[in-house]
Amino acid sequence: LDLFGVELAATHPDLPTIEDVSQLAASQPTRRSGPAADEQRLFMRWQSGPLQSADAELLQQAGVDIADRTIVQYYSNETLQVLARLEGAYAEGRPLEQIRKTIFGVRSSNGRYEYYVLEQQVRVGAARRSAP
Known about the structure:
Blueprint: E1 7-11, E2 17-22, E3 30-35, E4 43-44, H1 50-61, E5 70-74, H2 77-91, E6 99-109, E7 112-122, E8 129-130
């Protein structure tokens, strides 16, 4: 998560603050609390599964109360730009308004990790493409 500039956060619609954590690999991750009303960053969240549980565990280890909260991942602007470039390249000239959903994966390449497009779904009337 640190490699891609991802921060984890615990949110609740009835609470005025959001607690987020960065530098998760550090012995003392960086914690921050701020007004929920001021938060404008794009976030993603797991619906369920082991990665959602892993994010919850990381927040708990950093001392964040996750009871009755939604766990989200905030992405850095740099990472969002990478994802947007990959999405656009995979669309091969199709207007992005026609893209319904893009599913990204992470893979190892030359000793580094990188995002890539696993699958892209387009709105009704266009074919779906999957990575080879």
